[in-house]
Amino acid sequence: MIIINFKKHKKVLKLAKICSDFRKIIIALQPKDIFLISKKIKSPIYSQYSNSKYNALLIKKSGAKGILLNHSDNPITNSVIKKKIKKCKKIKLKTIVCCSNLKRAKQIDKLRPDYIAIEPKELIGGKKSVTSIKPDLIKKIVNKVNTPVLCGAGIHTKKDVSKAIKLGAKGVLISSAVVKAKNPKKKIKELFMGLKR
To answer: For residue 189, what are the contacts with CB-CB under 8 A and spacing of at least 6?
Structure first.
């Protein structure tokens, strides 16, 4: 599974249509973009966050299948995460909860999200992949939690994706590698090669 976080990408529909050509891709959009895009593509859409303006129910009604929680752009406390997960389960929205270390991963695991995404803050948006800089962290989290693990931060190549899967992750979170690519379709094809065992 590959989740592509569009962040504040300007050409949302164009990139979403490219992503929609690939199975096993989830795209994470700003809540305001979900309704428009969900009517025009096949890929599952997750919201990048939820808040008082864009709550879980509105996000669901807009056509999203899930929500990213506690992403580095929108950090929240464990008590808030717990409430949001409970609400999402009630309305059948999937949850991916991000964290940067083992301690927090263990805490989040008890809240029973659908996925935990490990993203060390210092590697987010950079060229160095979590799979090469902190492989032990991924391995430890995979072994210490019951929730399926995803990983992100600095994932740019098929080798990064392949290593994440070998370390026990069920998939990866990617942003800049695709969003800033001159040829996003080519980049996605390359990353997909890393999912093959």
So the answer is: none
Active site residue 71: yes
Tell me what pLDDT residue 120 has. Answer: 85
Return the CATH number of the domain spanning residue range 2-193: 3.20.20.70
Q: What is the pLDDT of residues 152-192, one digit of tens each?
A: 998 999 999 999 999 999 999 998 899 899 999 999 999 98
Selected catalytic residue, list 71, 122, 156, 190? 71
Q: Phi and psi of 123, rounded to 5°?
A: -105, -10
How do beta strands 2-5 and 66-69 pair?
unpaired
Q: Give the pair of three-digit tokens for residue 143.
A: 């072994």
- Cβ pair 70, 95 in contact under 8 A: no
- What digits encode the pLDDT tens for the residues 30-51? 999 999 899 899 889 999 999 8
**HSE-up of residue 5 (Cα within 13 Å, Cβ side):** 26
Nearest-10 Cα torsion for 190, 28, 33, 186: 0
CA distance 183 to 173: 19
pLDDT at 72 over 80: no
C-alpha to C-alpha distance for 189 and 183, rounded to whole angstroms? 10
**Is 70 exceeded by the pLDDT of residue 197?**
no
Q: Rounded to 5 degrees, what are φ and ψ at 151?
A: -140, 150
Q: Which two tokens stand for residue 69?
A: 């929680």
